[in-house]
Amino acid sequence: MDPRDFLALAQQLAIEATESAWRSAVSRAYYAAFHVARQLLEDLHFHVPHADRAHGYLWLRLSNCGDPQVRRAGEDLNDLRRDRNWADYDLGRLMRGRVAQTDVQAAARIVQRLEAAALEPTRTQITDAMKIYERDVLHDVTWNP
Questions:
Q1: What are phi and psi of 143, to 5 degrees?
Q2: pLDDT tens digit string along 29-48?
Q3: Which of 3, 29, 64, 73 has the most CB atoms within 10 Å of its CB?
C-alpha cells in the first residue's frame, strides 16, 4: 500500500463537518507522513524498529540529519504525532476542523520534503549525517549496507 493514500483520505476527512472525521483526518495524516518517513529510512538501509519504538526513532534521526528541510520534516512529524495522540486518545478535549486541516497540510509538506530528500545529493548527505548521529550520539548503529 502507498502511504500517500492515507494522506488523500485525510484530505477528504478534514473537510467534513464532524469531530470524528477531523480526528480521523489527523490520525491518517500522521500515519501518511510516518510511513513515508519509515520507507525513506529503510530505503537508506536503516533498520527501523517496529511498533511504538519506530515513532521516536524516525523523528530523532530526521531531526538530526544535517539538512534543514529534512530536519524540519522530522520536527513537524513529532508535532503531528502529538496531535495524533490528542485525536486518538484525548476525546474529552475538543478538536476543531481547522486543526485537522492544518495537520493535513503539515503532513503534505512532510511528505514533499521527504520525497525530495530521497534524491541525490540530499540522499547521501542525510544518510551520512544520520550514521554519524547514531554512532556518536545515540551509540546505537542501525544502518546496514
A1: -80, 135
A2: 999 999 999 999 999 999 99
A3: 29
| Distance, CA of 51 to CA of 21 (rounded, Å) | 25
Residue range of the domain that includes 68: 4-138
pLDDT (0 to 100) of residue 132:
97
pLDDT tens-digit map of 43-75? 999 999 998 999 999 999 999 999 999 999 999
DSSP structural state of residue 118: T
Q: Which of 61, 52, 101, 109 is nearest to 81 (CA)?
A: 52
Domain of residue 9, CATH code: 1.20.120
Tell me the chain's radius of gyration from C-alpha atoms.
15
Q: Could you say which DSSP state residue 136 is in?
A: I
For residues 73 and 106, what is the distance between their CA atoms, to the nearest angstrom?
A: 9
Three-state DSSP state, 46: strand
Q: How many domains does the chain have?
A: 1
Is residue 143 domain-resident?
no
Residue with the three cell numbers 485525510:
10
- Local confidence band at 137 (pLDDT 50, 70, 90 cut-offs): very high
